[in-house]
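Minutes, project check-in
Item: structure for the 210-residue chain
Input as provided by the requester:
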Amino acid sequence: KDDNKISYFTPRLAGFQLGASFTPDTANNDPAANGFGVTAQNSSTEDVTEIALNYAGEFGGLSVGADVFYVTGEAALVGADDPEERGVGASLGWGGFTLGGAYTEVENVVAGTQRTVTAASNGNETTSWTVGLAYGSGPWTVGAAYFESEAENTGGADIGSNEFIQVGGGYSLGAGVDLGLDIQIIEDKAGAAATAVDSTSAGVVLAISF
């Protein structure tokens, strides 16, 4: 369950759209997919403000998409710096091909999926970037993507990194039924002195929508 928030999106004008939201408190519920992903038992962020601008347009046969966003909040714990998050993304589409990429920076949060805010996280910085290419023709779609993330503390020491490669494809069976196959290769490293954990997995996906 997400925490209560207020969001507003402007009408799209000349391809541009602006959105903003405000979350007073992330302590009451479990907003794992909201804002900074702070869980209830480790809540440490208040007055979370988010603002984003995106663009979507077409020039001849070329489709263009771009976005930029900024998120900040007030650290509720004494001695903790306010967290910040910013990022940009873009995509280009032409003749069935779609190329996309994104870059994100997060400051003053604990590295990892929980991303809590504590005094010990002051000066931490996590940078992430991803790029992917997909091609679709008729019912078929194939693609590949690469993701990399690195985290450093205030002294510049490595406190975590991971790399993620995914390739796959899908086939539309029609009437809202899609069949897909994905292969994922992941390398996860907790820190400079930690041993990297490698994993490879594959899965078949059956998606039904109506």
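Outcome recorded: The chain is about 0% helix and 65% strand.
No further action items on this chain.
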